[in-house]
């Protein structure tokens, strides 16, 4: 059985995330080498891509509820992190890769906020708090997980920090990241790769994900949404 949370517990974890972010300050762990990366100046909107995955539970319904809960929780981060959820990919299922266990469910989301107010480490802290609140354990590398939240891209920033590498170093090997990313941000430019990232999907060794239909999945690509990551030339 997956770990289920009562609404009150959900509220508690969001409060915990808010307190933690407050402790870190508006810029998270500021002044640490490599964390701010190379970002656009001023209050220009910046977009962040987060990948979601789950493969623990007695059936895929548990994994699905973990991911749906995570998306709802990401919406709740807007007041503290300044990041608004602007797009949610379709849901995908894939066989485990480099690990064992039940099939995975995966999706990616895009978040957006003013570049000068965003803090990558504060987002990582918040994502890890959300993982923990769903009972995430790390007995060994690539172990089955209730909830995995990875930062794939943070605008055009390149970050090399002990806790955080962006772009995510293994994202381009993962069809379960590339396919949903292609669905919501087909024109995005990958730092250092431009549009060539799309070719990676043809060469990956990880199993191709299969789209999971479902009226209750909160896929969302609003009309007003234009991918800012695509707007820079490399
Ligand atoms: P994985 O997602 O690779 O299976 P984990 O979720 O257990 O592994 O994360 C392991 C560590 O990876 C985390 O403690 C985190 O500090 C680090 N990490 C480095 N870069 C990133 C990133 N872009 N997104 C999320 N975690 C990252
Ligand atoms: Mg992870």
Q: N-to-C terminal Cα separation, in Å?
A: 46 Å
Total count of domains: 1
Shape designation:
globular
Per CATH, the class reads: Alpha Beta
For the biggest sheet, the summary is: 6 strands, antiparallel
Report the CATH superfamily: 7,8-Dihydro-6-hydroxymethylpterin-pyrophosphokinase HPPK
Radius of gyration (Å): 17 Å
Task: Give an account of the 3D structure.
The protein is α+β, with helices and mostly antiparallel strands and 234 residues long. The chain has one domain: 2-Layer Sandwich (Alpha-Beta Plaits). It has six helices and eight strands, in the order H-E-H-H-E-E-E-H-E-E-E-H-H-E. It has helices at residues 7-24, 60-75, 78-81, 120-133, 175-184, 200-203, and strands at residues 45-54, 84-88, 91-94, 104-114, 148-154, 159-160, 165-166, 210-212. A hairpin with a 4-residue loop joins strand 6 and strand 7 (165-166). The chain is globular. It starts with 6 loop residues before the first helix and ends in a 22-residue tail after the last strand. Residues 1-34 and 230-234 have low confidence and may be disordered. The structure holds adenosine-5'-diphosphate and magnesium ion. Adenosine-5'-diphosphate is lined by residues 124, 138, 142, 148, 150-151, 163-166, 168. Residues 148, 150 line the site of magnesium ion (MG).
